[in-house]
Amino acid sequence: MTAYLLLALLFAACEGGVVPEPVTPDPDPEPEPVKERALVVPEGLTLTGQGEAIVLAWKDCSTLEEGYIVDRSLAGQSGTAQFLLPANSQTWTDEAPPAGTLTYTVRSYWHMERSEPATVSISRLGQPVFETASLQVSAHMAALGLRLMDDGGAEVRMGVEYGGKMQEFPAKVAVGSTAYLLLEDLEPSLDYSVRPWARNAAGTVYGQAASVRLSQAPAPLTLDWEDAGIGGLPDGLSILRSSTDVPGHHVNLWCAVADMTAGTMELRTTKASTATEPGEYIRGTLASDNVCVLVNGGYFASPSTSYSYVCDRGMKLASNVSVLSRKDSYNVTRGFFGIDRDGRTAVGWIQGDSPYAAPLPVYDGGPSLSIGQNLPVIEGWTPWSAIGGGPVLLRDGRMCFDFLKSDAGTYLSNHELFQTDIYADGLRAPRTAIGTDGKGKIVLLVADGRGSGGSTGLTLDELARIMAGLGCTDVLNLDGGGSSAFLTGNEGTLHNSPSDGKERKVLTYVWLSAR
Q: Full-prediction pTM beyond 0.70?
C-alpha cells in the first residue's frame, strides 16, 4: 500500500512539471596539519627583582615541549639547584635566592631532549654574618674565635681592632668555619677593648666589643745553684748544677753560663755524618777543638737527616724543616738561636736562609699559609754560628707560646707544629735549652726527667721560667727526651742522667770552645 502511495505522489509531481534537483553531498573537510615538536632556545630572557625575590621572564618559542627547566648556580659553589616548570611557561619566580653571584639557565625539554639554554646572571651581595665562637685569655696572649655564619655571597676577611691596631686573619674564611685570632702583643696590667669585624665587597660589619686583660704572669723561677766544681774552664764560663724542688716536683739540672764578652770562648755547632753518642763524637771528632761544654742540638731523623738548622762559622750544614703534614700540609717556620760574626745574638724563626722576628702563624687544623705573608725579617743580622730547634720560649723577655686551644683541641700558638710529645700543656720531660740575656751572656741548660736520677723533668713553662731566672730574655728549646745530654771537656765527660740510661745517638750538637 505504501509503495503505491509513493508512486502516486511521484506521478503527480511529474504531471505538474517539477523535477527535483539531485542532492550533492558536502566535501570532506581539509585535515589540520600535524604540529612538529620544536625545542627552541627561549628568547628575550630578562631578570628583575621584586623585593627579596628574582623574576625571570622569556618568550616561549618551543612547541609540544614537556616543560621548562631552570638551573641556578652560585659562584664559588659546586652543583646547581634545578626547578621544573610546565609546558608553555614564560615566567618563574625565585622566592629565596641566596646571596652571591647567581647564574640562571632556562631550557625547554621533552623527555631527555633539551633546547639550547638561555642564560642570565646577577650579583646579590649581602653583609657577612658572624658570631664570637670563643674568647680565651692567658698570662701571655688572648685568642678570639670568630665563626662565619653567612658570607653575603662574596669572599670574607675577618679580624679584630684593639689598642688602636687592626689585626686580620691571614686567610679567607669559609662559611661554617672558625677563624682564631691570637693577640700576642698585649701589655700586662692593661685593659683592651677588642672589637671583631668581618668584611666583604658589600662592606664591613662589627661585632660587640669584649674587654680583655691578661692574667697574672708567673714569675721567673730562681733556683738554688751550686758550682759543679769543674776545673780548667776559661775566664767567663761557669758550670752550675741544681738538685731542687720546682713547685710540686723534684728536678736535677746542669747549666753553663758564658760571658761571651770576655773573648775567651766561641759558640760552635756541628752536624755529624751519622747519629753518634755525644761523648764519642767529642773524643773522635772534636778532641782538638778545645771543647768546654757541649749539649745536644736540634731535631733529626736517624741516622743522618737533620730537621733543624745548623750553621757553623758561616757555613750552613742543615736547614730547618720547611713543610710539615698534620691535618693538612703546612709551610712552617721553626726556631733558631744564633750569633753573628760581631758577637750579637738573635733568637727567632728561620726558613731557608731568612731569619724572621715572628713565626708564620699556622696551627694544626687552620689554613695553610704562604711564607710570603710579610713576616718581619731580622734586619742587619747574618748567622755565623746558629742552631735550630723549637719552640721559641722567650723573645725580648716575653713568653711567645701558650696552650690556648681551638674547638678541635689543637694548640693555637703551636706555630712550629710540634707533636704532643714535645708541645703539650703539663707535659714534663727531659729538656735542653739555649738562651741569652742579649748583652753577651749565653746559657746552655739540661734538665733530667722521666724519673732518671730521681728527676721528673720540666714543662715548657717551667723551662722558660728557669731560663728567665738565669737572666735570659731570649730562649730556644732544643731536642729533649732521651737526647738531652750535658758533657764537658775533650774527654766528653757526661754529667747528667739521660732518660735512656745511656747517651742517645744524636745528629747535631752545640758547644762552647775555648779560644
A: yes
